[in-house]
Write a structure and sequence with these properties.
With about 240 residues, the chain is α+β, with helices and mostly antiparallel strands. It has one domain: NADH Oxidase (3-Layer(aba) Sandwich), CATH 3.40.109.10. It is about 30% helix and about 20% strand. The strands form 2 sheets. The protein has a 7-stranded antiparallel beta sheet with strand order 1-6-5-4-7-9-8, with helices on both faces. The protein has a two-stranded antiparallel sheet with strand order 2-3. α3 runs antiparallel to α7, α4 packs antiparallel against α8 and α6 packs across α7.
């Protein structure tokens, strides 16, 4: 039996890495994937205008747990925008070079794209959207009527995806990371995913919602649903969100 995990860890040690493309003078990849201009784009409310409230960080951390049951209430658009900003929001852009976001990332490479399965969000049609982090916008990706069912099946039938107000899906564009770190960059993708999802848990608690992370999914089915090739871009992690019961 081949033990892939130890092999992966061994072969991504520094002594086994080729010279990364950055050191070889290869231009870096774009900071964000382009979106289809034929698809509508929804501007999200400015996070600076989101209602501020005293936050007891210790209390948020103590209450934080995975929540799989949700009230049928919809999220407001500004609440969804707040969650997206807390998980991948851009605080500063150095054009063509880097983005500095609300979560840490190795070398500020930020290799993730965020998709959102919308089930119940005020002002949005049910379907799949992509978060355009640099401009804080949502681009329509698919309003296929079976989108939620397909993603639920890809998540091995975990029904709380279907009953969530929204589910965030994080996909990796690995070359953004490996351009600088070669094959070791694949390690960093998974570390970055943890940073992102923990921010979601705490941000959800702050607005009276609960979240549940999902790592059990059929890679091929989920990638197919998002029209990803599974190599140049692939799903890494998901998390469902809704109002606490």
């Amino acid at each position: 039996m081949t033990h892939i995990g130890p092999e992966f860890m061994n072969k991504t040690r520094h002594q086994h890495l080729p010279v990364p493309d950055q050191q070889a003078g290869v231009p870096q990849p774009p900071l964000e994937l382009p979106h289809d201009p034929a698809q509508p784009v929804t501007a999200l409310p400015d996070p600076a205008d989101f209602p501020d409230s005293p936050v007891n960080l210790r209390g948020l951390i103590e209450r934080r747990c995975s929540v799989r049951e949700y009230r049928p209430d919809a999220l407001r658009l500004d609440e969804l925008g707040f969650l997206l900003w807390c998980t991948q929001g851009v605080k500063k852009t150095v054009p063509g070079r880097a983005t500095f976001r609300t979560v840490p990332s190795a070398g500020a490479r930020h290799a993730f794209e965020t998709y959102v399965l919308v089930n119940r969000v005020e002002g949005l049609e049910r379907g799949i959207y992509r978060y355009l982090a640099i401009d804080h916008q949502l681009a329509t990706f698919s309003v296929a009527p079976d989108a939620a069912e397909r993603i639920t099946r890809a998540c091995l039938g975990q029904r709380f995806v279907l009953t969530s107000a929204a589910t965030l899906l994080w996909t990796a564009v690995p070359y953004r990371m490996t351009w600088r770190y070669s094959q070791r960059g694949y390690r960093y993708l998974h570390l970055d995913a943890g940073h992102v999802c923990q921010n979601l848990y705490l941000a959800a608690e702050a607005i009276g919602c609960g979240a549940c992370a999902i790592a059990a999914f059929d890679d091929n089915a989920l990638n197919d649903t998002l029209a990803l090739d599974g190599v140049e871009q692939f799903a890494v992690y998901l998390a469902a969100v809704g109002r606490r019961p």
